[in-house]
Amino acid sequence: MDIDLIFKIAGIAIFISIINIVLKQADKEEQAQMLTLVGVIIVLMVVIRLINELFNNVRSVFRF
Amino acid sequence: MFVFKIIAIVIITTLIILILKEEKREFSYLLTLVVSLIIMIFLLQQIKVVINILEKLIDSSKLQLLYFDEILRIIGIAYIGEFGAEITKDAGEITLAKKIEFATKLVIMIIILPILINILEIILTMIP
Fold first, then answer.
1. pLDDT digits (tens, 9 = 90+) for B89-101
2. Are B55 and B80 in the same domain?
């Protein structure tokens, strides 16, 4: 169980939301949107790897 | 005890999600997904232990349990399907969650049908 992953994602999320606020204050709505998109994609990479691990584990444990 | 570990992780995550929910909804959802994935992967190791014990019990009792592999496969499909449906439901897509549940039931049905046919054939041979 790697708890680091949770804190990593929480850190990315909080960082991006803070930068987002700053960008919105500076009237850079597009950049803020792009930043959110990039953050979601970065987290998605982690999620995809985890989903792959879960499926492989289920396949080996339940002998598919 | 791993229960305390899981409870602690879930509580910490809940607090982080409470902070994130107001600013970024998509990140709070992703965090939920990651935490549930981590917990599911962790629980699989425990399930493996249970399955090994069950298998030893079956081996020692000397009666062959037919279709043990099928039972295991059905449990695995239900495990994955329930997980996917719950995660999808959490994001508010109830229609898609219903599709996952339906697909799971269908796959289980396809696995069960040959067993059902076997039983029916046995019954038919018993009737003169």
1. 998 999 999 999 9
2. no
Helices marked H in chain B: 2-23, 25-61, 68-90, 94-126
ipTM above 0.90, yes or no: no
Q: Are residues B5 and B47 in the same domain?
A: yes
Interface residue of A47, A62, A63, A64 to substitute, partner B, most B CBs within 10 Å = A62
**pLDDT tens-place string over residues A13-59:** 989 999 999 999 999 899 999 999 999 999 999 999 999 999 999 99
What CA–CA distance (Å, rounded) separates B21 from B24?
A: 6
**Both B4 and B28 in a single domain?**
yes
Indicate the number of domains in chain B: 2
**DSSP code of residue B120:** H
Q: Are residues B28 and B40 in the same domain?
A: yes
Same domain, yes or no: B55 and B13: yes
Residues 6 or more apart in contact with residue B29 via CB below 8 angstroms: B90, B91
Sign of CA dihedral B112, B114, B117, B119: negative
Domain around B73: 66-128
Q: Are B20 and B28 in contact (CB under 8 A)?
A: yes
Which A residues, 36 through 55, put their C-beta within 8 Å of a C-beta on chain B?
Answer: 36, 39-40, 43-44, 46-47, 50-51, 53-55
